[in-house]
Design brief:
The chain is of the alpha+beta class and about 290 residues long. The chain is built from 8 helices and 19 strands.
Length: about 290
């Protein structure tokens, strides 16, 4: 689903300056520091007010603002790094419902499609409303009476190198399966090109809404990837509780008791160029059709 959350000219009428909040990837070197200041200058020349979160600011030797206060204050967030940085910020800022612009200073760049060299041209179009915001499905995980959110995937993984685990999976309709192997990936369509793809799961168009269940090294070859509609609610339990619960490959918990998974109420919102074409991204990043 594609929508325009607001028109920039409406914001300008209410306030003189549009506010952007920056988060940098956690491994900052001199080149990234210089790149940030270059991009910051371009934003300010275009009339934006630039904020930077406290942790990122400390890495480059300047003052910043608390991340949550920044999310409350700005009109949109900007990540400078790779897909991992954008995924982390999407999850951390989820409750603030702010669109996120990813500037690619990483390697692969499935999600961060804005090139630093073209940021000035993009901002000109952005101020004219010539951009789009994609709504991406988010997974909500109920874990120990708390709610966790995953943008890419939820992984149930074995905790001991030499052993396999049993994972019982039920849905709100019926018992689904008992997986036996190294683990199970429950992915969003956005995350289908991440761990899911490496484990043999399908590539799913990112603006669809579905769960992708992909077993990790299953003991039985009949255990295959499965796509479920997003209105399903999924419950999982691991025998003997010897497993890890991993959120977006970035947060790790001991898997104890049952967890419940469902589609989160709100989507994540990513700002993109109007020209962005997902299939062009796939052909470029996965080398499709290059004859090799």
């Amino acid at each position: 689903m594609i929508f325009f959350p607001y028109k920039i000219d409406i914001i300008i009428k209410k306030r003189a300056i549009v506010k952007a909040g920056f988060v940098l990837k956690p491994t900052v070197d001199k080149s990234l520091k210089n790149l940030f200041f270059k991009i910051k200058k371009i934003f300010e020349q275009k009339g934006f007010e630039v904020y930077i979160d406290m942790v990122s600011a400390k890495l480059i030797g300047i003052l910043g603002i608390d991340f949550e206060k920044m999310c409350e204050s700005v009109d949109f967030l900007v990540t400078l790094g790779g897909d991992g940085t954008l995924i982390s910020v999407t999850r951390r800022s989820y409750k603030f419902d702010k669109p996120i612009l990813g500037i690619n200073a990483g390697k692969l760049g499935f999600l961060t499609d804005i090139n630093p060299d073209n940021i000035g041209d993009f901002l000109d179009k952005f101020l004219k409303g010539e951009y789009r915001v994609d709504e991406r499905m988010v997974i909500e995980v109920e874990y120990k009476n708390t709610k966790l959110y995953a943008f890419n995937d939820v992984v149930i993984s074995k905790d001991i190198i030499s052993s396999m685990i049993h994972i019982d999976v039920d849905t709100n309709e019926s018992h689904l399966n008992r997986y036996y192997g190294d683990g199970l990936i429950i992915s969003t369509p956005t995350g289908s090109t991440a761990y899911n793809l490496s484990a043999g799961g399908p590539v799913v168009y990112p603006l669809t809404e579905s769960f992708i269940l992909t077993p990790i090294c299953p003991h039985s070859l009949t255990q295959r990837p499965l796509i479920l509609p997003s209105h399903f609610e999924i419950e999982l339990e691991v025998e003997n509780n010897k497993a890890k619960l991993i959120i977006d490959g970035q947060e790790i918990f001991d898997m104890k008791g049952r967890i419940k998974i469902k589609k989160a109420e709100k989507p994540a919102k990513l700002i993109h160029r109007l020209e962005r074409n997902y299939f062009e991204v796939l052909r470029e990043k996965l080398n499709w059709g290059d004859g090799k």
